[in-house]
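hey can u check if this looks right to u? its 182 residues, i copy pasted from the old doc so theres a chance i mangled smth
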Amino acid sequence: MVNIFALSSLVPAALQMAVAPGPRHGYVSYPPSRQALCRDVPVPGCGDVKYEPQSVEARKGSFKCNGGGERFHELNEEHLWVDYFTVVHPDHAPLNFTWTLTAPHATSTWEYFILTEHNTKLISFDYGGVTPGYTVIHHVPLRGYTGRQTILARWNIADTAAAFYACVDVDIIPPTHKECLD
């Protein structure tokens, strides 16, 4: 016989688990970030991020591909990624960056930087504490940049000191003069 009292005590616990916020995670899936490549392509030596591409979380403000956290130091090792640049043809238009969020969370800003000596900010998107959906697309301008560039994408969480990080290695091929005329 089913114990109705035991069953009734499980219902509130199950409801609480269903509505309680889960872990806050996300990564750039397109163009493929280093952690997306590690998950989808056999990048030798890329480490455990292949199992958790959405978990590159650290304090806000870092310019390191792993956010300066204790985990996933392989994301900072440039020699691992020299053969994995994605060729892009921006054609004077912004490049679309797609974030895949496994657990959206209230967001203050999304920031994009070209990693250089001075870490040049490309663009910032202010979300004002709004919780985004599971897919977020940003149009990031690359005008004036060519060749191999590493772009740091940073998702700043609104109600914690944490941010999520993703580095995307791109080889920006400028349009030819003829293409500019078309």
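Residues 24-181 form a domain with the Coagulation Factor XIII; Chain A, domain 1 fold (CATH 2.70.50.50).
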